């Protein structure tokens, strides 16, 4: 049986879970979470989205999966707020196909309305690649998102070919420095320079900066010195299911 058929079965029976990885601000407070999709395969255990998202993109199965992710993320955040745990902003990763579908904005508005999540509690993570192809349409969508007050961050920043000077024309709110740069920030002068450059330019453009993939205290300290705004990585918190996220937040308060 092919993975594609298994994926179809998973879609029909909603065999997915969303895990949430906390984002930590400069005061050490949880300022948001990134929603990360997990597929619990009946035989193979958890399968990484790095494996099945590209497959789902090529078959079109990404559409129902993405709808499920967005709705689940919104509902979970509303539930956290209703339980009095916290009002957290959630970042959702978008796939290229999803972004370029004509009814993307309509679906998004509908989901926000149906779930009751305030639009400014939602952030969408796009990669540079998504913005580089079909730029006109992408810019129109970004302006629409801004007027709705939905946040937009550029994920894996630094790995594509776009520059910050290009981004200054786009209505986005954050850049997330790719973890490949964070990995060597304390050992490679080059990577340290790149990271400092990104932070400095982003701040001049009025953008917030997230460092992802922080695994050591030294990396965390260095990025704090460089003025980074938001920190994400296994050192601070791993992705976790909603019930563990609730415990994590309650423990810190
Ligand atoms: O969480 P993990 O390291 O397994 O994620 C692997 C890749 O899958 C990352 O690039 C991440 O952005 C992507 N990913 C995780 N969840 C989603 C999702 O809900 N939608 C899309 N399109 N990509 C996701
Ligand atoms: O491409 P994107 O940035 O969305 O990828 C997010 C993925 O990165 C998540 O699936 C998460 O599991 C993974 N991740 C988060 N923090 C760390 C970290 O500190 N180290 C490593 N290696 N991966 C991380
Ligand atoms: Mn991401
Ligand atoms: Na990333």
UniProtKB/TrEMBL annotation:
Residues 1-253 form the EAL domain. It comes from the Bacteria. This is cyclic-guanylate-specific phosphodiesterase. It comes from Halomonas urumqiensis. The lineage of its organism: Bacteria, Pseudomonadati, Pseudomonadota, Gammaproteobacteria, Oceanospirillales. The chain holds residues 910 to 1162 of 1164 of the full protein.
